[in-house]
Structures are given as structure tokens and as C-alpha cells.
């Protein structure tokens, strides 16, 4: 059923759902629509408009590869969700809603006009993408469309079936994707558990290959096989949903990255953003890493510039019986091996190198992503 904005907002305010909303580049009219109808405080916990690049970086905790993309709208929704959780009662289940758009402006725009919107709850991630015909609407018309779509996403978050009509032109199509999370993923996101193991091996992982794997590529595949040959045991891949500088991975991203592996590959989803945390979850494990990762593990700048915190973390790694199997690779144009690094004492004795004559591969996940979006 299609409603007017006021009718839809009245229904939204009658639900118990409370939201944090973020809008950038478009969609901010939804904030006014929510607050122009009495009862907005029952729905809206917070509304933010991180409009500049600096504001968006501060909101997300890192610079996105693109400021207007489906991935960024979902990251915004995830950040909003966790902000909403801080404002709500522990037993409440709020939602994060986000919109990022690239609309008509007063200067030439080379890329397409588009709107990305997303909602994040404890139970699901959902995202919508709408590519607009360029130069067919005024800025105000495109902004109204972005606002209506954002209100529809709020209605989705509140469990309301009613929607505002979207005035789409011929050939325009609203694309939707969503994942409803199994209980184990929900517990992981909410911090009720720390590890979810996926795949055939249910025993604690003794050899672990951590990474973002965005995407998993031929270099990763070769590293995995070489590590299994060197260690003479299965190696589990580990994907942390948390990152020191970024919002957690959402359910669409988790499903996508897990889908890169075959059913016979054991994968561990964790909340361990640092190797010190990983060592607590996988004591006595051997971690498979590239030389660039080992550099970060040994650098005080990755511990807030605190050398003592770095030393303490490395000491705990060693005390928990962990080791590193290190793969050499090119870093900033220079090929680095284990012997090229001046490692601190707690770390040096627990590292073992895979020599370049056994393995050398300089594929970059970042380069692959850039090529895919070029």
C-alpha cells in the first residue's frame, strides 16, 4: 500500500523501533519528514549529515574507497546501528539507516547520478541502489526521490509494509539485496560470542591464515596450499568482522566473503581485530602472514604509538605459544624478506620464513578492487 509521507511517518512513530540515521549527498529531507510529525522522539535517536569528505571519514573511522557506493551506504548504516545501540537500552534492538547519493549539482558531474540506501539491524543487512537518468530531473526532484527512498528504508527497519511511491523514469530500476543473518552471526556482531567456525573442521584451529580477503585471489590460494605443505596440517582462514579503523563487516559482506571458499575449506569468523586478540582465541596456533602484515604487527604506530603496549602485545603472543609463518613479498616497490626486518626480541624467535624460491606472488587485493571499479 502506498502512503503520503505524513501517513507513513505516523505509522513509523507508532512502532517501538528506534533508529540512528545518516545521510550524505542526499536523503536528508527524510530527517525533516520524520521530525515534522509529532512523535519524532519515539523514533529518532540521532540524525547526522556527514556531508564533507572529512566528516564522512570521521563518521566511518576511515576513508572509504568511494564516498557514494553501496558498500559505503552499508558501512554508514552499520556505524549508525552501533551508535544507536549505545543510546538505547541493552535489551532494545535499534536500527541504523543510511543514504549516500550523488545528485545534480552546480558543477559538471562526470559520473552517474545515483542513490544508495541501507539498513542494518541485529537480524539483517539490506541495501538498495538506484541509478538515475542524468539531467532529467532538477536537484530538488532528485533530493525528494532520495528522501522518499530513505523514508521507505526507515519503514523497512520498523517492519512496516507501507511505502512511498518512487517517481521513476522509464528504464530506472530500484535494485535490492539483503541477507538475514543466522543466530550465530547475530551473536558475533552483538559481541555475545567471539568465534563462529564454518566448514568441515570443528576442532580448534592450529594453523590460521588471517586476512580481509577482499577479494580472495590466486596469491591467497597459493599461500594457503604452500602453508599446508610446509606445516603438514590443514590451515583455517580467519576473517575478523571487526577492524581497528572501520565499522564491522555487515551480513551481506560476510556472506560474500565466505562464498569465496569451497565447502571443504574451514573458515573462522571472529571479532579479533588485532593479532594479540587472535592469539587469545587461537593459543599455540601458527599464523600465516605476508611480510607487510608482520611489519604492522611489530610497529608501535599500530598500538597507538605506544612502544610498551607493542612490547606487551608481542610478549603475550609468544607466551601463548603462537608462531608466524612469513611469506616474503614486494612492499612499496622493494622485495622484503624476513631477514630484512629488524624485529623486536619477543617476535623474532617465533617467526619462520617461506623462502621466495618456494613462493613469490605480488598480487594486491587493493589493485584488484581498483581494476574492477575502473
How would you describe this protein?
It is a single chain. The chain is an alpha/beta fold. It folds into 2 domains: 5-180, Maf protein (Alpha-Beta Complex), CATH 3.90.950; 185-373, Rossmann fold, CATH 3.40.50. It is 35% helix and 21% strand. A 7-stranded mixed β-sheet has the order 7-10-9-8-11-12-15. It has a 6-stranded mixed β-sheet with strand order 2-1-3-4-5-6. Helix 1 (5-13) packs parallel to helix 6, helix 2 (29-36) crosses helix 6 (139-157) and helix 10 (275-281) packs parallel to helix 12. The longest helix has 19 residues, at 139-157.
Question: Helix and strand succession?
Answer: HEHHEHHEEEHEHEEHEHEHEHHEEEEH
| Beta strands, count | 15
Question: How widely separated are the two ends?
Answer: 40 Å
Q: SS-based structural class?
A: alpha/beta
The CATH class assignment of the largest domain is Alpha Beta
Q: State the CATH architecture of the largest domain.
A: 3-Layer(aba) Sandwich
Give the helix/strand layout.
Layout: H1 5-13, E1 19-24, H2 29-36, H3 40-43, E2 44-48, H4 53-60, H5 70-87, E3 95-102, E4 113-120, E5 124-132, H6 139-157, E6 174-180, H7 183-189, E7 195-198, E8 207-210, H8 218-231, E9 236-240, H9 251-258, E10 267-270, H10 275-281, E11 286-290, H11 291-297, H12 307-319, E12 323-327, E13 329-331, E14 334-336, E15 351-354, H13 365-373
Parallel strand pairs: 1-2, 1-3, 8-9, 8-11, 9-10, 11-12, 12-15
Antiparallel strand pairs: 3-4, 4-5, 5-6, 7-10, 13-14
Amino acid at each position: 500500500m502506498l502512503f503520503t509521507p505524513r501517513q507513513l511517518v505516523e505509522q513509523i512513530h507508532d512502532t517501538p523501533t528506534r533508529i540512528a540515521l545518516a545521510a550524505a549527498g542526499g536523503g536528508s529531507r527524510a530527517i525533516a519528514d520524520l521530525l515534522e510529525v509529532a512523535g519524532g522522539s519515539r523514533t529518532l535517536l540521532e540524525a547526522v549529515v556527514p556531508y564533507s569528505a572529512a566528516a564522512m571519514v570521521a563518521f566511518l573511522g576511515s576513508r572509504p574507497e568511494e564516498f557514494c557506493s553501496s558498500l559505503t551506504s552499508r558501512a554508514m548504516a552499520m556505524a549508525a546501528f552501533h551508535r544507536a545501540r549505545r543510546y538505547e537500552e541493552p535489551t532494545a534492538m535499534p536500527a541504523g539507516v543510511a543514504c549516500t547519493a550523488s545528485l545534480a549539482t552546480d558543477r559538471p558531474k562526470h559520473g552517474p547520478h545515483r542513490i544508495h540506501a541501507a539498513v542494518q539491524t541485529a537480524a539483517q543487512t539490506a541495501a538498495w541502489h538506484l541509478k538515475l537518468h542524468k539531467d532529467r530531473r532538477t536537484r530538488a526532484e532528485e533530493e525528494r526521490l532520495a528522501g522518499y527512498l530513505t523514508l521507505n528504508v526507515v519503514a523497512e527497519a520498523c517492519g512496516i509494509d507501507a511505502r512511498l511511491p518512487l517517481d521513476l523514469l522509464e528504464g530506472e530500476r530500484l535494485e535490492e539485496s539483503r541477507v538475514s543473518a543466522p543466530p550465530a552471526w547475530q551473536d558475533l556482531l552483538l559481541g555475545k560470542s567471539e568465534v563462529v567456525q564454518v566448514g568441515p573442521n570443528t576442532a580448534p584451529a592450529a594453523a590460521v591464515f588471517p586476512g580481509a580477503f577482499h577479494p580472495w585471489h590466486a596469491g591467497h590460494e597459493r599461500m594457503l596450499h604452500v602453508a599446508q605443505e610446509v606445516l603438514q596440517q590443514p590451515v583455517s582462514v580467519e576473517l575478523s568482522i571487526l577492524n581497528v579503523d572501520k565499522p564491522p563487516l555487515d551480513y551481506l559482506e560476510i556472506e560474500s566473503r565466505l562464498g569465496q571458499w569451497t565447502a571443504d575449506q574451514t573458515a573462522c569468523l571472529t571479532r579479533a581485530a588485532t593479532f594479540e586478540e587472535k592469539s587469545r582465541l587461537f593459543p599455540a596456533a601458527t599464523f600465516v602472514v605476508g611480510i607487510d602484515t608482520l611489519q604492522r604487527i611489530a610497529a608501535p604506530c599500530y598500538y597507538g604509538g605506544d612502544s610498551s603496549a607493542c612490547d606487551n602485545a608481542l610478549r603475550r603472543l609468544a607466551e601463548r605459544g603462537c608462531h608466524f609463518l612469513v611469506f616474503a613479498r614486494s612492499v612499496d616497490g622493494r622485495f622484503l624478506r624476513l631477514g630484512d626486518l629488524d624485529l623486536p626480541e619477543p617476535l623474532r624467535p617465533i617467526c619462520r620464513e617461506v623462502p621466495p624460491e618456494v613462493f613469490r606472488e605480488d598480487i594486491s587485493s587493493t589493485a584488484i578492487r581498483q581494476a574492477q571499479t575502473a
